[in-house]
Amino acid sequence: MDSAPAPEHLYRLLTTPDLTDPVLIVHFDGWVDAGRGGNTAIRHISNVSSATTIAEFDTEQLLDYRAHRPTLHIVNGISADIDWPRIELRAGQDSNHRDLLILNGAEPDHRWQTFVEAVIGLAKRFGTSHLVCLGAYPAAVPHTRSTHLTITSPTPELVRVNQSGATLDVPAGVAAAIEAAGSCAGIASSSMWAQVPQYIASAPYPPAALALIEGLKEAVGISVEGGALAEHSKTMRKQLDALIADEPDHARTIAQLERHHDEFNADPISGDGAVAISEELGAQFEKFLRAQTNPDNADNTDNADNAAESEPE
How far is CA 238 from the centre of its chain? Predict the structure, then answer.
């Protein structure tokens, strides 16, 4: 087996901007991301902050191209171009001119520990003060309630009062390894997770991305306008409300889920009942959405997923 490369050999530094106290925001495609919340949020932040690429990682060493296949563009029968998967570090500024670093791309398949060393090395080189990883997961919550954020961190002071004090053993993504290494390196590091209703978790859910962006402002002072993302969140709510308006059975299950959600928030002892209801609701909604969704609704859902790309600010 080939010896592992030095961390600095995993990337090509394109430029070295002079940054002041930047916050590093991290999200990788291919890991847990219900409703595409983390992906949509980081794309939106990258666009509105006018972020430019400052480092490119060597995906030849990091990715399995059978798992992350490049995209072949065929125009009128002619193979025009191939887009290879990327992992990039970008630099931008929020609406208050706060410096940002944005790490995004395909989650590496190989050399995780060396990759993490490379990321933390770059973070320290640019004077990073805070590191926040973004994601979203399916939960027993109704779309009629505000999106709740769960914060995890190796540092207790950075963890909010979450809904549950559960102790869990779960598979980790490379972002978790970056969070842990950042904390060891003296960088305030945490992960921010948006809860997405289980019955819509497989479709783009803009409210999750918007909640993550708003959470960044509260957690680390990053200010990013919601723009089209806010409008698409309202559209999603209206679509879901319309889908249940004429279906008394679905309205009742939503109301039941709301009661369990509100009771759990008031007294977070156990969420077992809410989970069971959400799973039942999800099975009903999947069938209902397949039957009711028309091409116009499908187009709106696609637009919601692309909101971050379509409106640079």
Answer: 23
Q: Which residue in the block uniquely carries the two structure tokens 């190796």?
A: 154
Check: CB of residue 237 under 8 Å from CB of residue 208: no
244-to-196, 248, 259 alpha-carbon distances in Å = 18, 7, 17
Number of C-beta neighbours around residue 184 at 10 A: 11
How far is it, in rounded angstroms, from Cα 126 to Cα 185? 13
Spatial CB neighbours of 243, under 8 Å, sequence gap ≥ 6: 250, 288, 289, 292
For residues 25-64, one letter each, b for 16 or more C-beta atoms within 10 angstroms of the residue's C-beta and e for the rest, the string is bbbbbbbebbbbbbbbbbbbbbbbbebeebbebbbebbbe
Q: How far from chain centre, in Å, is Cα 142?
A: 19
Q: Quick one: how far is CA 15 from the chain centroid?
A: 26
The pTM is what? 0.85
Beta bridge partner(s), residue 98: none
In order of their start, the domains of the chain are: 7-234+295-310 (3.40.50.10900)
Residue whose C-alpha is closest to residue 37's, from 183, 295, 215, 190: 215
| In contact, 61 and 2? CB cutoff 8 Å | no
Model pLDDT, residue 291: 60
pLDDT band at 86 (very low <50, low <70, confident <90, very high): very high
Which pLDDT does position 4 carry in this prediction? 78
Dihedrals φ, ψ of 164, to 5°? -140, 145
pLDDT of 233-274, one tens digit each?
A: 999 898 888 888 877 877 887 888 788 778 776 555 444 555
Per-residue pLDDT tens for 53-62?
Answer: 999 999 999 9
